[in-house]
Amino acid sequence: xxxxxxxxxxxxxxxxxxxxxxxxxxxxxxxxxxxxxxxxxxxxxxxxxxxxxxxxxxxxxxxxxxxxxxxxxxxxxxxxxxxxxxxxxxxxxxxxxxxxxxxxxxxxxxxxxxxxxxxxxxxxxxxxxxxxxxxxxxxxxxxxxxxxxxxxxxxxxxxxxxxxxxxxxxxxxxxxxxxxxxxxxxxxxxxxxxxxxxxxxxxxxxxxxxxxxxxxxxxxxxxxxxxxxxxxxxxxxxxxxxxxxxxxxxxxxxxxxxxxxxxxxxxxxxxxxxxxxxxxxxxxxxxxxxxxxxxxxxxxxxxxxxxxxxxxxxxxxxxxxxxxxxxxxxxxxxxxxxxxxxxxxxxxxxxxxxxxxxxxx
Length: 361
Prior knowledge:
Layout: H1 7-11, E1 21-26, E2 29-33, H2 40-48, H3 51-57, E3 59-63, H4 65-73, E4 78-83, H5 86-89, H6 94-97, E5 101-104, H7 107-113, E6 122-127, H8 138-142, E7 147-152, H9 157-170, E8 174-178, H10 187-193, E9 202-206, E10 220-227, E11 277-279, E12 289-294, H11 302-310, E13 315-319, H12 329-356
Parallel strand pairs: 2-5, 4-5, 7-8, 7-12, 8-9, 10-12, 10-13, 11-13
Antiparallel strand pairs: 1-2, 3-6, 4-6
Pfam family, one: MRM3-like_sub_bind
GO cellular component, one term: cytoplasm
Region (Disordered): 1-23, 222-266
């Protein structure tokens, strides 16, 4: 049993914990050198990879110069940056990283926790970005089009990341993700997105009732679909796969692809609306317009079809050669989005040309 300390002993100064070793990477830019046995990196990376943690604490994990630089330039808030050499910090905007805790660790430690085959030696913990507070690149905003993307049950991380990259490349105004989609801040999605997360607003985890409130007035919502190559344009199709509608026992219903939308589509089996259909390369991209891309496993949800029907939207058929399986969701998204971009730019050019015509008289 230990002897209790006397008042004199208690008044003696107690040994302090080891001082944190701090160094300057640049004037006014200080970093901390992690001591041997420091487990902060492993702990932070482990919890940041958890969706539950990301949702509860609003933190995300970013890795690599390109992704972290894009995030910083778009206004994302850094909390902690782990790096293996001071040279990594010199590649980042100094004013932004001064707001973060900078911790120098061994490259072997980063390699242990990295998801990359060849780690760069740079990891960052950021606050989850709020689209309303981000400063997206000027070039992106200048080339933005009244074209929106709605992802419906996209569950594969690689596919969603590729879709987001296509959306940014096509100049989409924003991307909406419904409940059932994979978390866009999951590390695999971030890697596949190649910086798209910081170029286009992404609003995630929406239920279908709240989707219309995130769309501009007067928008037409179309859905991407695969088409039976033997079926003529103007018929609905029900194959399974990327963007396919749920199975229906009814035969395809013919409709005129050029007819004006009546906003009162008939309903097929199980209350699923029967939308007018046309090939994706025919005229459909009015201003503004949204495209729904469904996942490979479940296809388009009935809620997506009902939203399209309520806006006078159409089913955009992507024909494939007989015997070829349905298209990957990411490929289908790229095809339809860039066709939508082409049509919108062509329509804008026509309007500009009309305005340049001399006024009669």
